[in-house]
Amino acid sequence: MKKILTSFMLCASIVAIQLPLSLQVEAAGVGAEEKPKRKVYLPGPSAGKKVAKAFEAYSADDVDGAIAILNEIDASKDYDKAFVSFFTGQMYAMKGDSIKAIEYLKAAVAPDILNEADHGNSLKLLGDLQMQEKAYNDAVKNYYAWMDFTGKEDGDVWTKIANAYYADKKLDKIIMPADKAIAAYGDKQNQNPYILKVTSFYERKMFKDAVKVLETVVQLFPDKKMFWTQLGQFYALVEDYPKALATLDLAYKQGYLEKESELKLLASLYQQSDIPHTAALLLEKHIGSGEIKRDDNNLASLANAWHASQHIDKAAKYFGELAKMTNEGKHYSKQGSLLKQDEQFKPAIVALNKAIDLGVDNKGSVYMSIGEAHFYLENYKEAYKAFQQAAKDPKTRKYGRVWVNHTKDTAQRKGKSI
Description:
Elements: H1 2-13, E1 29-30, H2 45-59, H3 63-71, H4 78-95, H5 98-109, H6 116-132, H7 136-150, E2 153-154, H8 155-167, H9 175-185, H10 192-203, H11 207-220, H12 225-237, H13 241-253, H14 260-272, H15 276-289, H16 296-308, H17 312-326, H18 329-341, H19 345-358, H20 363-376, H21 380-391, H22 397-413
Antiparallel strand pairs: 1-2
Helix pairs in contact: 1-2, 2-3, 2-4, 3-4, 4-5, 5-6, 6-7, 7-8, 8-9, 8-10, 9-10, 10-11, 11-12, 12-13, 13-14, 14-15, 15-16, 16-17, 17-18, 18-19, 18-20, 19-20, 20-21, 20-22, 21-22
Signal peptide: 1-27
TPR repeats: 364-397
Protein name: Tetratricopeptide repeat protein
């Protein structure tokens, strides 16, 4: 019989239940004070023999056969009933039938007569199975019952309780068991209760509290890149932009920024902090590599960053690419204006005329730029025509007329007809 019990405990020890929400945890308990020894029972000869036979079937990978044998047992004693229910519940759990497993395990723990290890294992397994079945309140009750029975403060179990509250959308209740888990893990810190705390604060829009947790987490888990990126993003949420930039810049230098949204946020923070040249270099690099999509919005950001950093030629280049991509007059207008500023008058005229052809709201300004480009190329006839068009626009009428007269006088002085 001792051999049977030993084998049975081995069976119980290999039953694995996985937490929902992918929160994998490592065992970390704190020893409890010694408590009175629980009375130890042994199954009766008839029940014991059939349980041994069922275990042989299980050992041969015949779980259904084991269950069939157990269901034949007509136990009369309370302990035998509980013991058989315990073993049957484990078999159904192994089979993946959580509903049946819960039914039998409830029957096993109800009389509170199982041996200490079996009773404790049943309570914890019940909680795990109820988590799988989304019976979160029942799961929490059994996790607390397990701690009360064993006298242990276990990090894994506290984390499961916090996770149950998260799954049940009781966000405010997450914090206490998460803190208990952190304390129970002690020096063997586990990231999961911290993740649950951050989630609780974030979903309740308590961003400053989330920041405090993440500030601790990046010190405890400095190699976990997700915490660095989250901390930077939360700094941005609470509008602490200097810390957001410093955190994400450090994360970037460590190779932790991989998502497009993270790279774009860093570039935006550079821009916002009057460091447009660094923003432009970052965007250019990662658009070139494909990590940031080469679309109109991102090209516009890149072009504007180069413009803000006074790299007019590069800004014109990317506005030109943006113009070809979108075929929008406003981008040709911007390209032409920058080319004119960079004294690339001939390509500026091409771009500006394209803007007129496609249609722009600021035609007067575009004609003014066309006129100026022709004027500096000493194409006074074309300049004169462009300034006349600019003079028809109420917004540029005054300056258009001035340039019309100036162009006419200059052409006459140089002996050129208009």
